[in-house]
Amino acid sequence: MRREVFGDCELILGDCLEILPALTGVDHIICDPPYEATLHEANKKNTLGRKFARYDGGRGFQQIDFASIDAIREPFVIAAAAKCKGWFIAFCTPEGVARWADCVNASSMKYKRACVWVKPDSTPQLNGQGPAQGAEHFVCAWGGAGYARWNAGGKRGVYTHCVNGPLRQGEHPTEKPVALLAEIILDFTSPGQVVCDPFMGSGTTGIACSDLGRKFIGIEISEKYFDLACRRIEGARRQQKLFEAPAVPAEQASLF
Fold first, then answer.
1. pTM, 2 dp
2. N or C terminus of the chain: which is more exposed, having fewer CB within 10 Å?
């Protein structure tokens, strides 16, 4: 097992099903697991033998090179429920929401709802045979004691961020925007808390946590993406902060 530490970010190379049970002090789990098998198959068909160029000079579309979540979703939720003291958040396809909800409802966590990430610049339907997918979801569950608590008052669970923003690195095929993760972290977590991402990928969640004063534990099974996350997080810590927490916390206004 390999560990790298960059300030308040601890990165661990290995299988999250083996590492999660040994962790202590995890306040929230915010992760972007592999997609469902149906989307993996569609990605292979759409990218096989093709090269996609972007007009802005950034990296083109990448083929997904890791297994789907289907085989490990249930044991992962069980392991996460045993460690999560606050919010459990997992990105998924629209078709995967019900599957995640079923697993969460069978655990000790309390399923809340699915939020939406709207992608204004999402990939068009390249074969023109139907509508393109313009959004992604993430499911939210509460793993703590008592009532669920967050910082955004009565805010709706809709997050709008472009996929191909200026901070996109592009080597990981399902990289999320740093601004999206920063907004989620501000809404669901508090400064000084520990956020764990058991499917760290290229380290975007760690970058946002470091920028916003949250401690971070990232787990990644692929050495290639682990090394990429190390480079990105180490580099981000040397740069000027991109995001700031609001001076006044959001409060629910009176409805009457």
1. 0.86
2. C
